[in-house]
Hints:
Layout: H1 18-29, H2 34-41, E1 57-59, H3 63-80, E2 85-89, E3 91-94, H4 101-109, E4 121-124, E5 129-132, E6 147-154, E7 162-165, E8 168-171, E9 177-181, E10 198-200, E11 203-207, E12 221-225, E13 228-230, E14 233-234, H5 236-239, E15 247-249, E16 256-257, E17 260-261, H6 266-273, E18 282-284, H7 290-293, H8 300-325
Parallel strand pairs: 1-14, 1-15, 2-8, 15-18
Antiparallel strand pairs: 2-4, 3-12, 5-6, 5-13, 6-9, 7-8, 9-10, 11-12, 16-17
Amino acid sequence: MFKTVILLEEQVRARDDPQLGALLERVRAGTQTREDFDLLNTRLVDRSQITFKAGLRAITPLNRNRWALNMEALVDWARFHAKHISIFISTHTWRSRTFLQQELAQTIEQGDSSSCKIPGVFFYAQGMPVVVNKNTYTGLRVVNGAEFTAVDLIPDPKFPGHYLADDVTIHFGPPLGILLESQETKDITIPTLPAGTLLIRPITHVLDPANSCYKFLSGKCTRRGLPVVPAFVLTDYKAQGKTFADVLLELRGNRVAKGQPSRCDFTSLYVQLSRCKTLQGIRLLNLVRPQDFLGNKPDQGIVDAMRRLTDLAVETRRSFKSQQCFT
Length: 327
């Protein structure tokens, strides 16, 4: 068990916005007020005013909302930047040859999740931000949650494009690969690939009706596609460690019962609010409910763990200072 601890408690992202910094401190301590609640709800925006063309990102704990918003965002961004839109339907193969057409449609609609790293439908436009869903090249930091820019695609001749509109084609199968780049890959040179790029190929995954996500399936089905999705909208988990100038938040739980999302988890609440540099940069997809914010505190396990880390940090500083005295 480790005993050397250094705690970084300063709100670095919000250092230039004292109002947001103070709000985050209260949320972290579980002492947020009705005034904080009312202030936060002033950041609600009308759905018609939401646009991703200028770099807006969004965070939601609900996968189904992420899938839908990412498709909207990609179309908005691509058309603003005059980019062609390509839609790739992942292939699905049933072990049993008998299945209903409705089952096929429902399977394709099921996007990526922790259970399956491959989306049923992949929307692509050159230059868009993407996030990798699977540890692929760990040594090159191409890991689950890593963000890249999509440079180009290698189309599969077996799945030609069919025009849905002048700027939209659909392919009934995945591409042979996608080329990605980032600041970390700029000095990498791989034979046969453009300098600074990496290639991600399609993978396969078995969808099993024993998994609650796929209980509608009549039997096991194999999906084949890219373990990559647009990064305009992220889950709260994959948003950790990221910083945004403008961000759209959905402060809800990650489960839905009787048509209503569950209460926002404390960790999700804090992670989402702390991704932005300023309060003015925060926008809300929907009004924050009282149960999602007021009285939302870290559970006792987190409190006990933080207390232990704080004590270890104090001891670490004391030990460091005593060593300095003898040098």
